[in-house]
Each structure stands twice: as structure tokens, then as C-alpha cells.
Amino acid sequence: MMMVLAVGLLEPRGPVAETIADLWWLLLGLGTAVFVVFAVLLARGLSRTPGEAEPDVRKRVGRWLVGGGVLMPAIVLVIVFAATVWAMRVMPTTASRDALVVEIVGHQWWFEVHYPDEAVTTTNELHLPVGRRVVLRLTSADVIHSFWVPELGGKMDMLPDDTNALVLQADEPGEYYSRCAEFCGLHHADMKMLVIAEPPDRFAAWVAAQR
Q1: Is the dihedral of CA 70, 71, 72, 73 positive or negative?
Q2: InterPro entries, per this entry (predicted)?
Q3: Given CB 3.0 to 4.6 Å as the disulfide criterion, which of 5, 50, 154, 192 pairs with 179?
Q4: Closest by Cα among 32, 30, 12 to 21
Q5: Residues contacting 55, CB < 8 A, separation 6+
Q6: Is 54 helix (H, G, I), strand (E, B) or coil?
Q7: According to the CATH classification, is domain 100-210 in 2.60.40.420?
């Protein structure tokens, strides 16, 4: 079976990343629309001949101030707020009892990955079964790091004095990379981990091979 290598957050391979990508495209569309509207108005204003008669100038300016300065921003903000709340509500924060639990500890400058139920520990390599929710318990052994697999989900800080939980699911087999998303020292740019999403049977075979 050929593994698919995704290249970024705009090519989601899981439900969490797909929700984030949808929100990104909405924000891009709204930003583009606002830019076009004001670019047209600017071009129209610059094309006017100096001294050209403009009837009811005050009335027109007042309408544009209300429409472009109050109503349009209010509409955009309401849409963005509603879409953000919706995205936060549909993203999973809990998982069923049969979810795979993985503990990941950030170190300067590598990742320690532990599967407590499977009694398996790896370094800089995370295996996930496709189609199954995974609960990642994230912490740090030294400074603040940040876990992020753009194709699968959002960022989550790895704190030295606390444990954060991130629920992910991979919908397609593939090889991805998690790079530390929080500056953590001299070799921060070298801190990355291979993430392999594979069918459940191949994941089970991999776990068995580690014992």
C-alpha cells in the first residue's frame, strides 16, 4: 500500500483538521470580499477629477460611514464569531473508553512517545490507527513545547507543570510530521516527529513487533 504524504493544514486528513481548514477558507473569503470592496471604493475616489461637483456630499459620506464603518464590520464580526463558536463546538474534546491513549513528553529537542496500555515507548515516532480516536496526553520535561500535526489537528502546548489532552483522528493512511510550534531553544527547528497513520491491522502488527 502506498503511503500518502500530505503537505499542510489546507490538506486535512482528519475531522479536526478539516474543521480548522473550513474556518480558514471562510476567513479568507471574507477578507478577500472586504479587500475588493474597499479597493473598488479607493479606485473610484482616486479617479475623480479634482473639483468635480458632487451633489449631496454630506449625505453620501454619512451613508458610507454607517454602511462601511459600522454595518459591514458588524456583519463580518458576527459571521466570524458564529463560525468560530461552531468550530469549537464540533471539535472533539472527549473520546470513548476504547480510544487509544498516547502519552507524549517534549524534551529539548525530541519527543518521547509512550503507549501505556500497549507498554510501548518510541522516540520521535508516533503511530496512529486510521479511523480511531486517539487521546494524546501532552506534557514537557523541561520548557514549553507545542504539539502540532497540521494535517490532523490544531496546536496544543506541552507544559512542564501540567498535562494537556488533545483528541485526534486520522481518516486516511499517510505519513505526516509534527514540528514543535513553540520556540524552545537553540535547536527548536530540529525538533520534529514522524507521524504514521496506518490501518488498524498494520498498527496492531507494529505494536506486536515492538514487544
Answers
A1: positive
A2: CcO_II, CcO_II-like_C, Copper_CuA, Cupredoxin, CuRO_CcO_Caa3_II, Cyt_c_oxidase_su2, Cyt_c_oxidase_su2_TM_sf
A3: 192
A4: 12
A5: none
A6: coil
A7: yes
Question: What is the Cα–Cα distance from 102 to 127, expressed in whole angstroms?
Answer: 10
- pLDDT number for residue 43: 80
Question: Given phi > 0 = left and psi -120 to 50 = alpha, else beta, which region is 131?
Answer: left
All three cell numbers of 51: 473639483
Closest CA to 169 of 65, 68, 91: 91
b/e code 172-209 from CB counts within 10 Å (16+ = b): ebbebebebbbebeeebeebebebbbbeeebbeebbee
pLDDT of residue 60: 62
User: What does the pLDDT read at residue 1?
Assistant: 37
Tally of CA atoms within 13 A in the half-sphere of 117 that contains its CB: 9
Using the structure block, give the residue that is written with the C-alpha cell 451613508.
63
Domain ranges across the chain: 15-90, 100-210
Return d(Cα 208, Cα 64) in angstroms, integer. 68
Q: Would you give the DSSP letter of residue 209? A: H
